[in-house]
């Protein structure tokens, strides 16, 4: 699969993920729809883009995917918006060393047969809490393999072997308001600006 840089990834689009398409299948890096609706859900069922760490293992809507269909979404960072003077200033959040971030996700086969995913979120930590109350669940390097292990299905075991990226490794800066338009997608979007 050829990866093309994207700088403004909107929900309801195809995104890259690493996953086991079946329990006995090798890992693949392919595209999944950023919107989670399991194949058994009704036509008007919600299609969330996120699932909270507090409920993902126990919610009827998510728990099957949490136990059997976890995935990783590679990213350089993510955007959040900080209210400033009656408007919302976008910020880019990333690792201080600018290394890739692996976001924890779950996926399910959608009613149309394609895979769809939701990214897990947790309460914001460190400097991320300056911008927003929640953040994606970014995993540390040692957690990637167990997160993807299809044979690891017990909630408590997963909780003990999977850890988030330390908060002190995350930084942020204000970026262009152009990021508010999904049609804008270029490297300048993640460059710092003077708000």
Automatic annotation (TrEMBL):
Gene3D superfamilies: SOS response associated peptidase-like. Keywords: Covalent protein-DNA linkage, DNA damage, DNA-binding, Hydrolase, Lyase, Protease. Its EC number is 3.4.-.-. It comes from the Bacteria. Pfam families: SRAP. InterPro entries: SRAP, SRAP-like. Belongs to the SOS response-associated peptidase family. This is Abasic site processing protein. The lineage of its organism: Bacteria, Pseudomonadati, Pseudomonadota, Gammaproteobacteria, Oceanospirillales.
């Amino acid at each position: 699969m050829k990866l093309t840089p994207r700088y403004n990834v909107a929900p309801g689009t195809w995104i890259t993920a690493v996953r086991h398409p079946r329990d006995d299948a090798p890992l693949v890096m392919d595209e999944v729809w950023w919107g989670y609706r399991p194949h058994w859900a009704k036509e008007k069922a919600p299609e969330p883009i996120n699932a909270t760490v507090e409920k993902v293992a126990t919610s009827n809507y998510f728990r099957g995917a949490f136990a059997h269909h976890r995935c990783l979404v590679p990213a350089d960072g993510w955007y959040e918006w900080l209210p400033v003077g009656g408007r919302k200033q976008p910020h880019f959040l990333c690792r201080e060393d600018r290394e890739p971030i692996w976001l924890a996700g779950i996926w399910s086969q959608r009613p149309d047969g394609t895979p769809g995913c939701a990214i897990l979120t947790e309460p914001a930590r460190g400097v991320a809490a300056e911008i927003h109350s929640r953040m994606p669940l970014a995993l540390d390097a040692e957690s990637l393999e167990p997160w993807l292990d299809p044979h690891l299905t017990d909630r408590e075991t997963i909780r003990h072997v999977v850890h988030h990226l330390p908060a002190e490794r995350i930084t942020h800066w204000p970026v262009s308001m152009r990021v508010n338009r999904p049609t804008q997608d270029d490297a300048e979007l993640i460059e710092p600006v003077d708000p």
